[in-house]
C-alpha cells in the first residue's frame, strides 16, 4: 500500500506497523456502535406489537410531510383507520387473539400500500397512514383497497375465521391550506367518526380546501391562526 493511501502515518509497511491491530480493533468497535445506533433508531420509531411506525414517529413524519407540501406544492393525505367493534374481538376470543388480529391488520395494510407511504400505529386499534405527494382521489382509492382486503381476509386462528372490518377517515393537505397539523388530524378524525356513524366498514373523505382559499404566505397563515385562536 502506498504511503498516501495507508491507514497509519508511520514509516513501517502495513503488515509490520505496530498500530495496525489497534486500528483494526477501533474500526470493529466503530462498526459495532454504528450497527447498535441503527438498531436503536429502528426500535425508537417502531411499534413493538405490529412493527409499524409508532405514534411518536407519526408526529415527526406528519410534520415533515406538511413542510414538504409547503415546499413542493404537492398535496399529501392523512388516513385514520379504526378497526370496527374490536372490543368484541377481545371479549370473544381474548386479548392474545386481539393482538394477533392487530398484527394481521397491520400486515395487510403494510402489503397493500406503496413503499413511499408511511404506515403507523396511532394507538390501540387505530392506525394512521401518511401518503406523501398524493391527491385525495388516489388516497381514497388506496384506502378503499385496504378496506376491501381487510374485509375479504379474515384472521385464521384456532380453527376459526375471525372477520375484521375497519372504518376510514381521510383529510388532505395542500400548500395553501390553513390547517395546523393538529387540525389536519382532527379533520381526518371527523371523517372517521362519520364513517363509524354511517355504519362502519367504509371510507369517508373531507372535501379538499384547495379551491376555497387564495394563496397565502406562511406569515399570513400564522396571523390568521393566531386571530382564530384568540377568537375562540
Ligand atoms: N388485544 C388488544 N386490544 C386492544 C389493544 N389496544 C386497544 N385494544 C382494545 O380495543 C378495543 C377498542 O374498543 P372501543 O374503543 O370500544 O371500540 P370498538 O369496539 O372497536 O368499536 P368501534 O370503534 O365503535 O367500532 C378495546 O377493547 C381495547 O381494549 C391492544 O394493543 N391489544
Automatic annotation (TrEMBL):
Protein name: diguanylate cyclase
Positions in coiled-coil regions: none
Catalytic reactions of this protein: 2 GTP = 3',3'-c-di-GMP + 2 diphosphate
Highest taxon above the source species: Bacteria
Residues covered by the GGDEF domain: 74-208
PROSITE patterns with a match to the protein in the record: GGDEF
CDD domains: GGDEF (cd01949)
Record PANTHER family: DIGUANYLATE CYCLASE DGCM-RELATED (PTHR45138:SF9), REGULATORY COMPONENTS OF SENSORY TRANSDUCTION SYSTEM (PTHR45138)
EC number: 2.7.7.65
Listed InterPro entries: Diguanylate_Cyclase (IPR050469), GGDEF_dom (IPR000160), Nucleotide_cyclase (IPR029787), Rev_trsase/Diguanyl_cyclase (IPR043128)
A Pfam family this chain is assigned to: GGDEF
Amino acid at each position: 500500500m502506498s504511503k498516501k493511501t495507508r491507514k497509519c502515518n508511520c514509516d513501517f509497511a502495513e503488515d509490520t506497523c505496530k498500530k495496525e491491530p489497534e486500528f483494526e480493533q477501533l474500526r470493529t468497535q466503530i462498526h459495532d456502535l454504528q450497527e447498535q445506533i441503527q438498531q436503536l433508531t429502528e426500535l425508537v420509531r417502531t411499534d413493538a406489537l405490529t412493527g409499524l411506525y409508532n405514534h411518536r414517529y407519526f408526529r415527526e413524519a406528519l410534520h415533515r410531510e406538511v413542510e414538504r407540501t409547503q415546499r413542493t406544492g404537492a398535496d399529501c393525505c392523512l388516513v385514520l383507520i379504526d378497526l370496527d367493534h374490536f372490543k368484541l374481538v377481545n371479549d370473544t376470543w381474548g386479548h392474545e387473539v386481539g393482538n394477533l388480529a392487530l398484527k394481521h391488520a397491520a400486515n395487510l395494510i403494510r402489503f397493500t400500500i406503496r413503499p413511499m407511504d408511511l404506515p403507523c400505529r396511532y394507538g390501540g386499534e387505530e392506525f394512521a397512514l401518511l401518503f406523501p405527494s398524493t391527491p385525495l382521489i388516489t388516497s381514497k382509492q388506496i384506502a378503499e383497497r385496504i378496506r376491501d382486503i381487510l374485509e375479504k381476509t379474515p384472521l385464521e386462528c384456532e380453527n376459526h375465521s375471525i372477520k375484521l372490518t375497519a372504518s376510514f377517515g381521510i383529510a388532505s393537505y395542500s400548500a395553501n391550506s390553513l390547517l395546523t397539523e393538529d387540525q389536519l388530524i382532527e379533520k381526518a378524525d371527523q371523517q372517521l367518526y362519520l364513517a363509524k356513524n354511517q355504519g362502519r366498514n367504509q371510507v369517508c373523505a373531507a372535501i379538499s380546501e384547495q379551491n376555497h382559499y387564495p394563496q397565502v404566505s406562511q406569515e399570513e397563515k400564522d396571523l390568521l391562526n393566531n386571530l382564530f385562536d384568540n377568537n375562540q
